[in-house]
Write a structure and sequence with these properties.
The chain has helices at 3-16, 24-29, 56-59, 68-80, 92-104, 118-135, 156-160, 171-176, 210-219, 245-255, 308-312, 329-344, 347-362, 401-411, 434-452, and strands spanning 35-39, 42-45, 50-53, 109-115, 143-147, 184-186, 223-228, 232-233, 239-240, 259-263, 287-290, 302-307, 371-377, 380-385, 414-415, 417-419, 423-426. The protein is an alpha/beta fold and 454 residues long. The protein has a seven-stranded mixed beta sheet with strand order 4-12-11-10-7-5-6, with helices on both faces. A four-stranded mixed beta sheet has the order 1-2-3-15. It is globular, with a radius of gyration of 22 Å. The protein starts with a helix and ends with a helix. The structure holds pyridoxal-5'-phosphate. Belongs to the class-III pyridoxal-phosphate-dependent aminotransferase family.
Length: 454
């Protein structure tokens, strides 16, 4: 792109754009990164500079950019019909995709309700869970229980899941508090800062789940569902649960007769090793959400899967939910092509091989003076920075240490994210080459050393 064109774009950007989750004054004060093209796992900016996308466009990129199979599926569907809407009309791509999702999901999740984003898929799950209890004659079950710190989306419903009794009532909940419904949260399985006061993994008898047991014992007749990000909370700072945690949560939830919602929007599609994270512990939730990489990141599409037991409660009623674009044909056609690639190229095997490389590459980070903890589940990894390793004391927020590290990594050609809690997160695509992954970790390692003065 010519320099004058880039300057013009940046001027228009400053005048008209409003970015998600972005401090706009700061954004406008610097030269915005304008991504013009992409190739595999690399983003190429308007000046021709290349950046390795260590965050897979927030978990969307599954097969790499520029995959002709996905482009051809999109064009072929667009030639047949761009959209039809699922409002009392069916079309082949959505039906095929529903059947395919049901076949791939944990056994028992047979019904598929389509939406457009992860947030709307979770919102759908919340409404389905509540409406289920209404249909069962228990409308007092209107409270949801989530895991503290979890992220389930940006809508008012999903923000409401940031339980007001949690140990991490944060800025998002505080900002919108008067608009939200009440919810409860139980301890997150944070082994680095164990909420149950255990000192190491070896002492762990999953005491952190006792807070869920307590809530359900006390409140069970008014609880609609428990919602979790299965086995890892990415945006909470890559909180990886000890083995057996998900199965235990599922057992407690079932024993109290409450519905379980697994939010697989980020963890799905082999990001944690198995196709869905629930698969690793043999858990079938009552409702499960998928999104992000469902179309390989090429189009926005998401889905809420339900068991027949949940679905059957709606036989005498109508599920009052859905939007114009629910299950639109283009998205469904590209998702089918993406699932073909998923199977043909054995994405789970590829993700596991890459995750092994990542584990090896992350090992040296543990020796850095200001790295408190390194956490990883499959292709979700986080490095927690601390001012003092001995006492696990965080840096003063005004030092903005992780922001500075991410900016330096970006200047050196690698995109990674900072999340609250001074954690740098990596979400490499399973399609990334092993050499590219080493470039990612090497660049990040050097950036941490430079910014922390090691
Ligand atoms: C676990 C989880 N659920 C839901 C969402 C929301 O998805 P979306 O941003 O597509 O609305 C996210 C987004 O990061 C997520 O990580």
């Amino acid at each position: 792109m010519e320099k004058t064109d880039v300057d013009r774009l940046r001027a228009l950007d400053r005048q008209h754009m409003w970015y998600p989750w972005t401090p706009m004054a700061e954004w406008m004060a610097r030269d915005q990164l304008v991504v013009e093209r992409a190739d595999g796992c690399w983003l190429i900016d308007a000046d021709g500079k290349r950046y390795l996308d260590g965050r897979s466009s927030m978990g969307m990129n599954l097969h790499g950019h520029g995959r002709t199979e996905l482009v051809e599926a999109l064009v072929a569907q667009a030639r047949k019909a761009g959209e039809t809407t699922l409002y009392r009309v069916s079309h082949p791509a959505a039906v095929e995709l529903a059947a395919r999702l049901a076949a791939m999901a944990p056994p028992g999740l047979q019904r598929v309700f389509f939406a457009e984003s992860g947030s709307t898929a979770v919102e759908t799950a919340l409404k389905a869970a509540y409406a289920y209890w209404v249909a069962k004659g228990q409308p007092q079950r209107s409270t949801f229980v989530s895991m503290a710190g979890g992220y389930h989306g940006e809508t008012l419903g999903t923000i409401s899941l940031r339980g007001e009794n949690g140990e991490q009532v944060d800025m998002i909940r505080k900002t919108y508090e008067p608009l939200l419904f009440s919810s409860l949260s139980f301890h997150q399985p944070n082994c680095y800062r164990c909420p149950a006061g255990q000192s190491s993994d070896t002492d762990c008898a999953l005491e952190c789940t006792e807070s869920l047991e307590d809530i359900l014992t006390r409140e069970k007749d008014r609880i609609a569902a428990v919602i979790v990000e299965p086995r890892v909370q990415a945006l909470a700072g890559v909180i990886t649960a000890p083995a057996g945690h998900l199965a235990k949560v599922a057992e407690i939830t079932r024993r109290h007769g409450v519905l379980l919602i697994a939010d697989e929007v980020l963890t799905g599609w082999a990001r944690t090793g198995t196709t869905f994270s629930c698969d690793a512990e043999g858990v079938t939730p009552d409702l499960m959400t998928v999104g992000k990489a469902l179309t390989g990141g090429y189009l926005p599409l998401s889905a809420t899967l339900a068991t027949e037991q949940v679905f059957e409660a709606f036989q005498e009623s109508v599920f009052l939910s859905g939007s114009t674009y629910s299950g639109y044909a283009l998205g469904a056609a590209v998702a089918l092509a993406s699932l073909d690639l998923f199977e043909k190229e054995d994405v789970p095997a590829r993700a596991n091989a890459l995750a092994d490389v990542l584990a090896t590459e992350l090992e040296p980070f543990r020796a850095l003076t200001h790295v408190g903890d390194v956490r990883q589940l499959g292709l979700i990894a986080g490095v927690e920075l601390v001012a003092d390793r001995e006492t696990r004391t965080p840096y003063p927020p005004q030092e903005r240490v992780v922001d500075r590290i991410c900016t330096l990594a970006r200047d050196n050609g690698v995109l990674v994210n900072a999340v609250p809690g001074d954690v740098i997160t990596m979400l490499p695509s399973p399609s990334m080459t092993h050499d590219d992954l080493r470039f990612l970790t090497g660049t990040l390692y050097r950036a941490i050393r430079e910014v922390t003065g090691e």
